[in-house]
Design a protein that fits this description.
The structure is a single chain. Helix content is 42%, strand content 16%. By secondary structure, the chain is of the alpha/beta class. It has two domains: 190 residues, Rossmann fold, CATH 3.40.50.2000; 180 residues, 3-Layer(aba) Sandwich (Rossmann fold), CATH 3.40.50. The strands form two sheets. Strands 3-2-1-4-5-6-7 form a seven-stranded parallel β-sheet, sandwiched between helices. A six-stranded parallel β-sheet has the order 10-9-8-11-12-13, with helices on both faces.
Length: 387
């Protein structure tokens, strides 16, 4: 290891593409050349998100045997790896990597834990065992915790009983100007081609996993497309794809539903949508939705996590409870009010520009990577006190 490099060990349950992985890729690429060496552990030995990392980025995949459900055995193995690697900083991500907090007890490396949200097993509420484990491994040891939403911030403080000085909300951010420019280029190209027919393109970008509930979107679309000329584009891949394709075929709207599969640049597809749809059972601060809003695009979404705090007040009719009937009503409402899309889109874009800046996200995470996280946490604590 070069003496000038700061080594960060990132512990993920998986490095297949998801929200936390996509954010890390964005951050690491933006800070390429700044003296960081990223060592990544994927506990399921999947490293597909690495395909998006810049070719010159200093990173390594570390493979370590992982016994599913074998916490004590894993603790010893993970602790041995920490002692061998001696990272300057350990970052563990979400419940799937909580064992690393146990492995780092007593502390071998400076450790921060990151929470992005819940899986399908906690979509309806947190599991008591996990709440107590977070209290023990994070709260009692005063491990600094970064959260990706206001809802998670509230849970960390009130349910996990973490010390307020050890919780920091760092919102996901997007490249507003770059996204808006790509959307504008697409619009100009469509004008030159004379296209943009009567069909509305409804789209989503998501991992095809149970908690994303793309089946809800397919069912709602198959109903509303009888009354509105529309197509549905589903960008992403995952374990639910086969079942979802079968559902699409059986819905009667299969010819109007496209599965693109995994795309290295999903934004290229997103800028072509007319309406963005998010049908998840659980989310916190979804990046794809922020990107859609940066395009000036109206969104229909389930009111989960911070989604209801992001969608502008003028478009509240496009928010739904996480159930099929409510989501179908919201989608139908949006299609019935197409004359309001421009106003909804402008309000949403302005909110993203002001509150979800990529540069603010980069600045905060750069401080974390450098080891200057205490100042970030102090600022967040002061902001909470003033709120």
């Amino acid at each position: 290891m070069s003496a000038s490099r700061r080594t960060i060990l990132h512990a993920f349950s998986t490095f297949a593409l998801g929200g936390a992985q996509a954010r890390f890729v964005e951050l690491a690429n933006a800070m390429s050349g700044e003296g960081f060496l990223h060592r990544i552990v994927a506990m399921d030995d999947r490293y597909e998100a690495g395909e998006r990392l810049s070719p010159g980025l200093a990173w390594e995949a570390l493979r370590v045997a992982n016994r599913r459900g074998g916490g004590l055995a894993n603790r010893a193995r993970f602790r041995e790896l920490l002692r061998r690697e001696k990272p300057d900083l350990l970052l563990s991500y979400n419940w799937g990597a909580i064992e690393w907090a146990a492995a780092n007890t007593p502390a071998v490396a400076e450790h921060l834990h990151v929470e992005d949200g819940f899986g399908p097993d906690e979509a309806q509420g947190q599991l008591p065992r996990r709440v107590w484990t977070r209290r023990a491994l994070l709260g009692w040891r005063r491990v600094p915790v970064i959260v990706a939403s206001r809802r998670l911030e509230s849970a960390a403080l009130s349910e996990w009983h973490l010390p307020p000085s050890r919780v920091a909300f760092i919102p996901n951010g997007v490249d507003f100007d770059g996204i808006a420019a790509r959307r504008a280029r697409h619009a100009r190209r469509m004008e030159r081609m004379g296209t943009g027919g009567p069909e509305t393109v409804i789209g989503t970008v998501a991992g095809l996993r149970a908690e994303k509930n793309i089946a809800r979107l397919i069912r709602a679309f198959s109903s509303v497309c009888r009354d509105f000329p529309a197509r549905l584009a589903i960008v992403g891949d995952g374990p639910e794809r086969t079942a979802l394709e079968r559902l699409a075929r059986d819905s009667g709207a299969g010819s109007a539903i496209e599965f693109t599969g995994y795309l290295k640049d999903p934004l290229a597809a997103l800028v072509e949508f007319d309406l963005f749809a998010l049908s998840s059972d659980t989310e916190q601060l979804p990046i794809a939705m922020l990107e859609a809003m940066a395009c000036g695009m109206p969104v229909v979404a389930t009111d989960v996590g911070d989604v209801g705090l992001i969608v502008p007040a003028a478009a509240r009719g496009c928010l739904a409870r996480p159930d099929d009937a409510s989501f179908e009503r919201a989608l139908r409402h949006a299609l019935e009010h197409g004359n309001e899309w421009e106003a909804w889109g402008k309000a949403g874009a302005e909110r993203v520009r002001k509150e979800y800046s990529r540069q603010n996200m980069l600045n905060a995470w750069r401080a974390v990577f450098r080891g200057d996280w205490r100042e970030v946490f102090r600022q967040r604590l002061d902001q909470r006190k003033m709120a």
